[in-house]
């Protein structure tokens, strides 16, 4: 085959969503409360579909099950990663995710959820909730029961270009006015700790998962300082943000012409800005902002030309 797999994303409406996915990426979104673009996904709750080549019309899940050779024969029972773009038009709930062991036991075999965020854009005074102040489980429970949210939750300012690594067990929330590319384990398990007592269109509050949250939260909070490593070579600046248990994530800033060797079983790529051309074995593919694609195992070398910025990940 030796072809990249370009993908049609799936969009998810959320109480906190907005129109940034249409405004910034020109996506055809289902409503003015669209919170998530599941850009590269093999998760049953929203599967991306291939739009080019011999596998056009196939979902990532189908390819994972029927053509594992495209992914270097990787042994995970499910496609292991999920790339999203999130439009936090309002504050997300304060939440925490379980690890693999807990999720397998309590969530029907679902993977746990370690994730990371690249801040694409945000309001000038934007912030996020990352971690908590409790020193012990007893203190954590007491502060939740007494509604001491301002004292419990740690807030950090954010700016475009920031990167955050969010292991399972970390209390977190994106806040109003942030647009984020998220790379995560392929999981849709979220435990809500606090949702600002807000109500949906029917006047109902959303379900909270206090007991499970208490069971899975890391106490005390552990900081995850990201130390990006930047490498410059002909035509491209490669920033490695994180190399962790479940994924490695990079930013590629291409300026001109760059050649690449595929040294992973497969790679996931999202074009965040600019435009250019991807060349694979004499074939050219147009790249523009909002494109998402997989470079499968049988692509050994490739070239990118143009002025563009991509977020790239692999297992």
From TrEMBL:
Keyword Zinc: yes
Gene name of the record: manA
Presence of the UniProt keyword Zinc in the record: yes
Domain Mannose-6-phosphate isomerase cupin: 238-315
Highest rank taxon of the organism: Bacteria
Catalyses which reaction(s): D-mannose 6-phosphate = D-fructose 6-phosphate
Name of a matching Pfam family: PMI_typeI_cat
This enzyme's EC code(s): 5.3.1.8
MF annotations from Gene Ontology: mannose-6-phosphate isomerase activity
UniProt cross-references to NCBIfam families, sorted A to Z: manA (TIGR00218)
Cofactor: Zn(2+)
Enzyme class: isomerase
InterPro entries (alphabetical): Carb_Metab_Reg_Kinase/Isom, Man6P_Isoase-1, Man6P_isomerase_Firm_short, MPI_cupin_dom, PMI_typeI_cat, RmlC-like_jellyroll, RmlC_Cupin_sf
Domain (Phosphomannose isomerase type I catalytic): residue spans on this chain: 6-118
Protein name: Mannose-6-phosphate isomerase
Family classification: Belongs to the mannose-6-phosphate isomerase type 1 family.
Keywords (A to Z) from UniProt: Isomerase, Metal-binding, Zinc
